[in-house]
Amino acid sequence: MLSPISAAAGRLLISEPFMPDPNFKRSVILLTEYSEAGAMGFILNHQTEMMLGDILPDLSYSEIPVYMGGPVAENTLHYIHRCPEKIQGGIEIWGGIYWGGDFEQIKQLITNYQLTEDEIKFFTGYSGWTPGQLDEELREDAWIASNKFEADNIFSNENNLWKEVVISLGQRYAHIANFPENPMLN
Q1: Which percentage of the chain shows pLDDT scores above 90?
Q2: Where are the transmembrane segments (predicted)?
């Protein structure tokens, strides 16, 4: 088993380098829920071509990028943030990162230019697993679970997030970061 760390809310899931499911190709997922009922999270590094204004055209400032949270319920909008002093009602996932909160308050903050993309991240859809499914995928080495990350990484628009997170896991994993996306090119 590649991952000595178990899955839990607030941990990252890093996809194995040759993940066959294109939805999760070189993905970094923040788990927001993990229980006997299953698991849920959001892909942090698959930015869509949409901006928030494409989804909510009534906002005056809406140049905040939207990410593909996962292949489940892609017609839903979710968000994580790190500003509970501005947004009430969010649930702390881990280390000052919150999921959800008062959406009307968020829209007002965005309209008034009081909320920036380094404080909040929006997702269409989510990644979900049925009871036991994620544990089985971890045993099959489809994912590496990690609790080593900085909040700045979560809210960055970094195109190389997967590679950076893999390298941050240490020497045991660093070589994986340089694997080609297509193993036939090796």
Answers
A1: 62
A2: none
167: tokens are 């390298």
Distance CA 97, CA 7 (A): 17
Contact 39, 134 (CB under 8 A): yes
Cα(10)–Cα(146) distance, integer angstroms:
9
pLDDT confidence of residue 182: 57
Q: Which residues contact 35 (CB under 8 A, 6 or more apart)?
A: none
Q: For residue 66, give every residue at least 6 positions away whose Cβ sits within 8 Å of its Cβ, in sequence order, or none.
A: 47, 48, 50, 51, 52, 54, 55, 77, 122, 123, 124
- Residue ranges and CATH numbers for the domains of the chain are 11-178 (3.40.1740.10)
Residue 153 clears pLDDT 60, i.e. is over it: yes
- pLDDT at residue 93, rounded to an integer: 93
Section 120-130 average pLDDT? 97
Name, in order, each residue with C-beta under 8 angstroms of 59's C-beta and a sequence gap of 6 or more: 52, 53, 107, 110, 111
Q: Are strands 91-94 and 97-99 parallel, antiparallel or unpaired?
A: antiparallel
Phi and psi, residue 185, nearest 5°:
-90, 0
